[in-house]
Amino acid sequence: MRLQLGYNDVHPFSKVNIQDRASVQKLLETVLDPLEPFFSPDKARVNCPGATAVRFDQTASEVEGFARPLWGLAFLLAGNGEYRGTEWWIRGIKSGTDPDHPEYWGYPGDNDQRMVEMCPIGYALADAPTLWNSLSLNERENVEKWLGNSINEKKYNIPFTRCSLQVLTSDSMPNTNWLWFRVFANLGLKKNGGKFSQERLESDIQHLDTFYRGNGWSNDGPEGIHQMDYYSSSFAIQVLQLIYAKLNGDDDPQRAQEFKKRAQMIALDLVHYYDDEGRAIPYGRSLTYRFAVVSFWGAMAYADVELPAPLTWGMVKGIVLRHLRWWQTQHAMWTSSGTLSLGYSYPNMYLTENYNSPGSPYWACLAFICLAVPESHPFWTSKEEFPGDAFPKIKALKQPGHIMSYLGGHCMLLSSGQACSYPMKGTHAKYGGFAYSSAYAYSVPPGLFSLEQYALASQLGLSDDGGEYWKTRRTNEYAAIEYREDRPVLVSVWRPFSDVKIKTILIPPVEETPNWHLRAHRIEAGREVMTADGSFAIRNVNSENGRYLDLYDETKCEGTSPKIIGNYDVKTPSGWAEGKSGAFAVSTGAVGIKALESWDGRQANLVNADPNSNLVESRTVIPTLQHTVRQSETAWYVTGVYAKPTGPKEMYLDGWEKTPRVPSWLEAELK
User: Fold this and answer.
1) Distance CA 141, CA 135 (A)
2) 503 and 382: one domain?
3) Which of 344, 372, 389 is the last residue in one of the domains?
4) Which DSSP state fits 446?
5) How many Å apart are CA 448 and CA 450, to the nearest integer?
6) Which of 38-47, 214-223, 509-518, 528-537 is predicted least confidently?
7) Structural domain of residue 364, as residue ranges?
8) Which of 215, 301, 318, 373 has fewest C-beta within 10 Å?
9) Pairing mode, if any, of strands 394-397 and 217-218?
10) pLDDT tens digits, residue range 436-477?
């Protein structure tokens, strides 16, 4: 069955009325069905549309296309559901693990993507018995060799001596969340009486425990790397800990209980990442996995975790179902063949990492873990609820180094100190930004020339060549949650250039001015630098004819102030305003920025960001403050950033003139 979407067609995914377990089962079918034409003849590979290269070989890419949807199918089968295409995956496992078959997957080499895909395959074998039971004795031996022998030979790259197995030299397997994938390869075999390595299983679990940092949070790697994004929760670590607790709890009860305790602790932090509209805060890498960001909540139900107060199953159910409904409104995320595209709300290669093949987005099927939860569980029987006032509107999260806010109509996190350990594309935007919002997604650079291409949403950029190339915060010399007047603030010290030192202080909103947060920067310049301080990015499309926003029109409650000119034209007066007057844009809500320091000097304008830089909106504009710091000068900025995404359009600018109070301690500290 081939799905072909035409000009006005809506994907079947968006037509499902999500209310209960049966409707989520139907939703999964709309994700799996379009894959049918892209299976290889003997079903071992899925070549998803989008002939894009990736850092691993084409066969591994097609194994990824086969394995990742298996998350969803396995959850469905584990919950006693049925799917017409189950036989495709059974046949594919037989063909892919047969070394004499033309569609054989091949043993994994060093740092091979095949090891990642062993995780959903291992889980599926463990919790969906029909898969293993459909294999002959010879086919089971093939699975044991491919799934067990090959990955158990791999070593990770730091010494580890807590057990008899000692690893010292090889770097053939990343020392990250990847170790969980071997755990599940062995677990899949263990649950079926196959040949597996208990020694590897135990040593990997023990080593993964060294990533734990406290308060429920695990880092994605050993000491020296501070990276706590959705991999620490829904994409990998928390979800896999909970699945492990469910599947292996009888054999490892103490560790299973520990994993459940961690989930209870982190749940009270993670609840702050999802808003009442169903949106999650886009943050970090791998966001082409889309709705996988809510899999943690279904895993809590799957593992029979007792919810910590004040969480209720109605709240948990609401987080998951509202999130899926929000994705139903993102009609551009599909290819014309009905498969998930590479991107977020629309196809976007600028967002993707070098490990994203056309099959990568199907890690999103982790979200369907709720289908493995019995219909009688309170996750399904409870009425949907909102977290409401049960949780604080401002909360500092020690481990990820975030300050969370749910004031002003959106979930927002202020961030300092996180970074990726390797040179990932757009890493400064994915981790180094100051603020991340559920309503206004972050932007990545589609090019490296001028502010339009850098798209510095919620970032401070510095240029030492007159504005052609810009550097932003990526790593920090210091980053910590500190307290001023008994309120949390984020302090970081960073260097965009070796002789330019910046101290940044991030201050969350307050009840009196809920749509504003403050950023303060103290810049010690060893060379002359231009600066550009960007607000959130917002849709740059007017509602009348679909063209760019015009000057603000009070009768339409839409437009910008000042006028959008573009940074290639920096001399046109109509495109600039005094920094204290600021710049704003109104379309899907309102965003803006003002200079609140006591001295004059910064200027405000609208950066017309290059198309496809933002994750959610393909055309955006970024209100920005600009200035030049001379060599050997020390400058200090206090920036007010405005965001109001909800309410009647007549009220979008309701708080624009009421700027936040600049704390007395702040100016003194900057000086």
Assistant:
1) 9
2) no
3) 389
4) S
5) 7
6) 214-223
7) 12-389
8) 215
9) unpaired
10) 999 999 999 999 999 999 999 999 999 999 999 999 999 999
